[in-house]
Design goal:
Elements: E1 21-27, E2 30-40, E3 43-47, E4 60-67, E5 75-85, E6 88-92, H1 100-114, E7 119-123, H2 127-139, E8 143-147, H3 150-159, E9 166-170, H4 175-188, E10 193-198, E11 210-212, H5 220-229
Parallel strand pairs: 7-8, 7-9, 9-10, 10-11
Antiparallel strand pairs: 1-2, 1-4, 2-3, 3-6, 4-5, 5-6
Helix pairs in contact: 2-5
């Protein structure tokens, strides 16, 4: 994970896994939390809303980390800050913390199992429509986590070890809840595609990616595929 000044970047010795998790550390008077973007046996990259100060570079920090999963535990470790970026920073482990390699092995196994499967979180308070739309996603080979409210979806996201590929938010949610959910996705899951579901056939103005739920017995699988492969639009 180390860059060589003036030369070619060092080839990474460890496979990186795009697992979800949280890290917290403190060094002297500086405290910082962030979301884990990827992790390997040798270290991890952390995304932060506030950039880490330059004085952290090459410093060793004591930290706590936890991968998102139902039974995951907090692990204590020490690592060296080896790279600073506007969006986050990289930490390398000289010695992986106890229990970390076992955790990485479990996450690697799970990651390989889902590598070619698109995962979707579907949020819709209309049970009949949610069932029809979930069937449309599953018909294209997706795994679907269904939730009736944004709060339920947030809980389910916290239980998952990996980021979903897409979050489909139906317009049945009250406007204030939908707005808060979009802000939550933008802040905590910026790499996830947000798809808005509604009964209008045409794409209304103001939505990033639109999926019409009109006449689900017609060409719904084709519409789902189009929504999944369409380039992500800015929210």
């Amino acid at each position: 994970m180390t860059d060589r000044p003036g030369g070619r970047p060092e080839r990474r010795r460890h496979t990186r896994i795009a697992a979800k998790g949280t890290i917290a550390f403190q060094l002297l008077d500086h405290e910082q939390r962030g979301r884990i973007a990827n992790v390997s046996e040798g270290g991890l990259f952390v995304l932060t809303n506030v950039g880490a100060p330059n004085r952290l570079l090459a410093r060793t920090v004591d930290l706590e980390l936890r991968l998102d999963a139902g039974q995951a535990e907090w692990l204590r470790a020490a690592g060296r800050v080896i790279r600073l970026r506007p969006e986050g920073f990289a930490i390398a482990f000289d010695i992986p913390p106890p229990g970390f390699l076992r955790m990485i092995d479990e996450v690697t196994t799970a990651s390989r199992a889902r590598e070619r499967i698109i995962s979707v979180v579907l949020i819709d308070g209309d049970e009949q429509r949610r069932s029809a739309m979930a069937a449309g996603f599953r018909s294209t080979g997706c795994t679907v986590i269904e939730a009736s409210t944004p709060l339920e979806a947030i809980v389910r996201l916290g239980e998952s070890s990996f980021e979903p590929d897409a979050i489909a938010l139906a317009n049945s949610c009250p406007s204030n809840e939908a707005k808060q959910m979009r802000e939550f996705i933008e802040r905590d899951h910026p790499s996830v595609k947000l798809i808005t579901i509604g009964d209008d056939v045409l794409d209304p103005d103001g939505f990033a990616n639109w999926l019409s739920s009109a006449n689900p017995d017609a060409d719904l699988p084709a519409r789902v595929r189009d929504a999944l492969v369409a380039p992500r639009k800015r929210r």
